[in-house]
Write a structure and sequence with these properties.
alpha/beta, Rossmann fold, 6-stranded mixed beta sheet, 13 strands
């Protein structure tokens, strides 16, 4: 069974009924969190109960919001590998380095986790139509899960978002609308069309359940590391549900008695072309300002204003972590390093974590003996338009000087 009891505003604490369709807090407009009867969970759900369970995020069903298992909409998402990266680690001076590789997840990115949870709840609550603004990978994910659930789906994307995401969404049966602007402009259109079209907006943190799917990344890291915490987690931050979800997961695990009060330092990584969280962190602010002229090759990081910015900043500060921005050039270099050294073809957002870690090592913000987890949030195969093939061409039957190749 699920132990979901209610929803609670992450800012003002107002409670909401869990069995009804909810968006954000109707008092302060901030995100709602799903809350569980963790005392009862602890009496029924133990670490040993996980042995032999399915290798997906739904192995943690008791800590997820769906009450009726028949409503789960799944493509096998989650339980992605925590891959040791010793060659890369030795090269940069962090031998105890791991990559949590979300590239192999359905639809090729970590977005599948949040959308599996959100669409499962949409099904449970009887929602027939959904809409979402997306900078890229979330569009493909919602299209896939909506198709599997038989729910009508609309996605609004910036016109210059990666073409593969628009193609993916359209092939899955979603109605794709391209917007001349940023993801924030797409979000405004979703909100404007809600009354007329009757769709439910699955906008980041404007519904309560995507973050629940994302928190399973934290549950998995804890389980895969033997219920201990790494010293540092480096995470690429656009909307920020990953950091927010993992921080929530660690709190829930401590309350269950499965981990202690140690926490990893949470590092929020953004692009220099769109770094509202980094700016707010450095200025000591609780919320970020809108980032004008957002531009970066990492489409998932091009979020000029995140609804949950205060929660991201809270997690980073409470953990003793930091926030930093890297250049597009550093990101592309890191894609090559991660691929050539460890065989992980990371998306630009995932590679940004390596670029950030290199800076931190150079600045002595990470010690050689610390255990560090980088999150690669998607497959580089969805960004091949950023690369050119530099290869010789040979004619069949021609004599080839192989040493010159």
């Amino acid at each position: 069974m699920s132990y979901l009891t209610h929803l609670e505003c992450s800012k003002c604490g107002k409670r909401f009924e869990a069995g009804r369709v909810q968006t954000a807090c109707d008092s302060c407009g901030k995100p709602l969190f799903a809350r569980y009867d963790l005392d009862e969970v602890g009496g029924e759900f133990t670490k040993s109960a996980l042995v032999g369970r399915e290798a997906s995020m739904w192995r943690y069903f008791e800590l997820l919001p769906v009450r009726d298992r028949r409503n789960i909409v799944s493509l096998g998402e989650g339980w992605t590998p925590l891959t040791p990266a010793p060659r890369l680690g030795r090269e940069i001076g962090v031998p105890n380095l791991w990559v949590k590789d979300e590239a192999i997840i359905p639809t090729g990115s970590f977005k599948a986790r949040g959308l599996s949870a959100a669409i499962s709840m949409a099904k449970e609550l009887g929602i027939k139509s959904v809409a979402m603004p997306s900078a890229g990978n979330a569009a493909g994910a919602i299209a896939a899960y909506a198709a599997r659930a038989g729910i009508e789906c609309y996605v609004f994307m910036p016109e210059d978002a990666p073409k593969v995401n628009a193609v993916e969404s359209q092939v899955m049966g979603a109605k794709v609308i391209l917007v001349k602007g940023l993801i924030t402009d797409a979000g405004k259109l979703v909100a404007e069309g809600e009354a007329e079209m009757g769709w439910f907006p699955v906008t980041t943190l404007k519904e309560p359940y995507r973050v629940e799917g994302k928190k399973t990344m934290g549950l998995e890291v804890a389980e895969q590391m033997g219920w201990t915490m790494p010293d540092v987690i480096v995470y690429p931050t656009g909307g920020g549900t990953g950091i927010i979800g993992m921080w929530k997961a660690f709190d829930e695990l401590e309350r269950l008695g499965w981990i202690g009060d140690d926490r990893p330092r949470m590092v929020s990584v953004q692009s220099e072309g769109c770094a509202p969280i980094v700016k707010a962190f450095k200025e000591g602010k609780e919320e970020a300002e809108f980032w004008e002229g957002a531009e970066t090759i990492a489409a998932g990081l091009r979020v000029p204003k995140a609804l949950g910015d205060f929660l991201i900043l809270q997690a980073v500060r409470e953990s003793g972590g930091t926030a930093l921005a890297v250049s597009d050039e550093e990101i592309m270099d890191a894609v090559g390093q991660m691929a050539a050294k460890e065989g992980v073809f990371a998306c630009p957002e995932g590679a940004a974590t390596l670029a950030a870690l290199i800076r931190m090592v150079d600045g002595r913000e990470v010690d050689r003996g610390e255990r560090v987890v980088l999150f690669n949030t998607g497959s580089g195969l969805k960004y091949t338009d950023l690369f050119e093939v530099d290869a010789p061409v040979v004619e069949p039957g021609a004599k080839v000087d192989f040493k010159s190749l």
